[in-house]
Each structure stands twice: as structure tokens, then as C-alpha cells.
Amino acid sequence: MDASSQPTPTPSELMIVAASRALHGNRTVFVGVGLPNIACNLARRSHSPDIELVYESGVFGAQPARLPLSIGDPTLVSGATSVVSMSDLFMLYLQGGLIDVALLGGAQIDRYGNLNTTVIGPYATPKTRLPGSGGACEIAINARRIFMIMRLSKRAFVPQIDFLTSPGHLDGGDARRRLGMPGEGPALVITDKALFSFDNPEREMMLVELAPGQTVESVQAVVGWPVRVAAEVRPMIPPTDEELAIVREHLDPQGLYR
Asked: 11-251 has which CATH code?
């Protein structure tokens, strides 16, 4: 079924659905609040009922009855597989190699998927001081794969990030392996205008799908470096009625994030 009987998807809903579909076939997903949380719960309520949601507050296998307000929201505990300390979660589950995918975002990202969530401008005299890493640096290093969810803009997709908070593919190629990082690094960047993969030897962000109404030229206009384009660029498949209904009626009925 197409989305014809539902209002046109918003850019956020397009990202939520694309991220949810990308999670198909994965079991353990490290997630935060906001769009990643809605995407994971959409996956759990549709194609992947056995998916295990992991929150850095120490909750493994969360089954939240409502949209959590933060990673410390008590709704995450009800029905969870396990509740442990943050140190146990990071050392036993994350560093133990038990996380299939982690969903991350940031204020800035470069062509190799390196993320900045620390400062805009010089570190000592920043224009804006951001929340920092939290657990994102450790997650980016240890999770088997990383998916990013970010709105596509020239302010965020920059040639050089102001601070490297969470490593992606560093300067490309096998840089992660040479440093002994256990995780494979970024695999997908999900935006409101396009999807990017890193499926090339240089591990450089590569345009693989375009959202409705977008072109290679419109994407290039809001990316701060020459965009690498796949040999075949596919159209993003619009959300179905069922997917939109789950998001709008059950996961985010007040529209806080979508």
C-alpha cells in the first residue's frame, strides 16, 4: 500500500521510516531519544518484533510503552530484558561486541562520517558549546556498525569538522583498522533529502538514494564538499500508510519529533 490515504510525509517522518527499514535484520540496536528512538520502535512494531533496544542509561531490551522523554525515563525499564549500571552496559554489552547497530547524530559531519557534538568554532573560544560526547565516542568505536540520522544542510555537512567527537572512518580507507577500532564504523547516513552509504574502498560518504523532489544537484548545493555519487542512484521509497499510522497514532501522536 502506498501513502496516498495519509497526508504527505514530513521530512522527519521520511528519515524515521528510512532508518526503521535500514534496521531490518539487526537484533541489538543502541539508541537515544528523538528520531532514532521512534525509528527503532517503528521497526519493533512492524518488520522486526524481536529487535532489542539498548539505552546508555543501562537498559537492555527496552520495550517503552510511550515515547521516552530522556534516556533516564522510567518507561524504559518496564518489560526490559535487563537493567544494569552504565559501566556494565558499556563494558559488557558495547565493548563486548554485542551491539549490531548504533544510531547517532551530530552538529557536524564530514565526508568520512566523523562527528562533532562538542563545539562550533575553536575549542578554547567556541561560537557555540554543544552537549559533548556522552557515550557517543565509545559507541562509534565499538558498535559493529553506525547509522547516522541528520538533516542535510551545508552547516552540518562540512569539509572539516571543528572538533572530532566521535570517529567515523577518520581519514578514510582502513584508518579504523590500523588504530585497532573493533567496530566497522559508519555504514549509512539518513537525511531528509538523501541516503548515503560508505560502500567504497575509500570509505567516503556516497549518495545512493534521493528523496522525492530531490536531484544530485540539489543535494550537492547543501553539502560542503564534492559529493561522491553511486553508479546507480535509486529513489527513496515513500512511507506506507501502515508505517505512517504507527508513527502518527502510536509513537509520536503529539508530533514532538515527527
From this structure: 3.40.1080.10
